[in-house]
Design goal:
The protein is mainly β. It has a single domain (12-142), classed as Jelly Rolls (Sandwich), CATH 2.60.120. Helix content is 14%, strand content 46%. It has two helices and nine strands, in the order ββββββββααβ. It has helices at 110-120, 131-141, and strands at residues 12-16, 19-29, 32-42, 50-51, 56-69, 72-76, 81-84, 90-106, 144-145. The strands form two sheets. Strands 1, 2, 3, 5, 6, 7 and 8 form a seven-stranded antiparallel β-sheet that branches. A hairpin with a 2-residue loop joins strand 5 (56-69) and strand 6. The radius of gyration is 15 Å and the shape is globular. The two termini are 26 Å apart. This is Cupin type-2 domain-containing protein. Residues 39-104 form the Cupin type-2 domain. InterPro entries: Cupin_2, RmlC-like_jellyroll, RmlC_Cupin_sf. Pfam families: Cupin_2.
Length: 153
């Protein structure tokens, strides 16, 4: 594995319905893999609760958010952290104008999901208006909306 340095503002942008996800790093070695994203999320309708095959950490840098994990709300302030376990329904909602956070996820699949989602689902439409595209992308990546069975790949 080699050293990676990403300057502020750099990274691949994935505009999605719940914010701009910027890929900062993908790390894979003999001990496992993880990916790091910087997410800037506006106040907007939240993404539907969904079940991912990877675990994730939301570490809030700016703003405020409410994270929902398995139906339990967590009010998150800057410096706060919430773990989204794999296989558990989760989402977040911005409180106020916007929020910025780090999302660190296990494995090496979330970046491919974000890339596919950002090109397949229009970020400027409410989730209800894009449901067919959302379901298509989630099925391809083993993600399920809460209340449906998680898919495996």
């Amino acid at each position: 594995m080699s050293t990676t340095y990403v300057r502020p503002g750099e990274g691949r942008h994935y505009p999605m319905i719940d914010g701009d996800h910027v890929a900062k790093a993908a790390v894979k070695d003999d001990l496992g893999a993880f990916e790091v994203f910087e997410v800037t999320a506006p106040a907007a309708p939240m993404a539907p609760p969904h079940v991912s095959p990877w675990s994730g950490v939301l570490y809030l840098l700016e703003g405020r958010a409410t994270a929902y994990v398995d139906g339990t709300p967590y009010d998150v302030e800057p410096g706060g952290l919430v773990v989204f376990p794999a296989g558990v329904p989760a989402t977040f909602e911005v409180v106020g104008d916007s929020a910025r956070f780090l999302a660190i996820v296990t494995g090496d699949r979330a970046g491919r999901f974000f890339a596919d989602f950002s090109t397949s689902v229009r970020a400027d439409l409410p989730p209800a208006d894009s449901m067919a595209a959302i379901l298509s992308v989630t099925e391809r990546h083993g993600v399920a909306l809460a209340g449906t069975q998680p898919l495996t790949n």
